[in-house]
Design a protein that fits this description.
The longest helix is centred in the middle third of the chain and has 8 residues, at about 45-55. α1 packs across α2 (about 60-65). The protein is of the alpha+beta class and about 100 residues long. About 20% of the residues lie in helices and about 15% in strands. It folds into two domains: about 1-30, no CATH class; about 30-99, no CATH class.
C-alpha cells in the first residue's frame, strides 16, 4: 500500500467461479502527481493556464492527460515525459501510462 494514502478495498466477483477476490485501488488519492518529479498539476508550469483554457479543474485536466494511470493516480508532466524519451505505445493499440 502507498504510504499516507487510504486505499479503497474493492470486491470483484469472478463470473466463472462465483468467488470474490479482494483488490486495492488508489483512485481516491486527493491530487494526481507526476510519477517522476512528484509535483501536483497545480505546480507544473502552464498546466493551470491550459486547464483554464479547456474549462477544467487542473486535477481533472491531469486525469484527462493521455499518460494518466487511474490505478496509481500518476501522470507524466511534460518535462518528465520528454526526459524519459516520449514513450508511445508499448503494445499496438495500448497507450503508455505512467507507472
Amino acid at each position: 500500500m502507498i504510504p499516507d494514502v487510504q486505499a479503497q478495498m474493492e470486491l470483484i466477483c469472478e463470473a466463472d467461479t462465483g468467488q470474490a477476490e479482494e483488490r486495492e485501488t488508489v483512485t481516491d488519492l486527493p491530487t494526481p502527481t507526476c510519477f517522476r518529479c512528484h509535483r501536483p498539476p497545480a505546480e507544473i508550469p502552464g498546466w493551470m493556464y491550459d486547464a483554464h483554457v479547456e474549462g477544467m479543474d487542473v486535477n481533472a485536466y491531469a486525469k484527462a492527460d493521455g499518460t494518466y494511470n487511474p490505478v496509481t493516480n500518476h501522470f507524466a508532466c511534460d518535462t518528465c515525459y520528454l526526459a524519459i524519451g516520449q514513450p508511445a505505445y508499448p503494445w499496438p493499440g495500448t497507450p503508455w501510462v505512467a507507472p
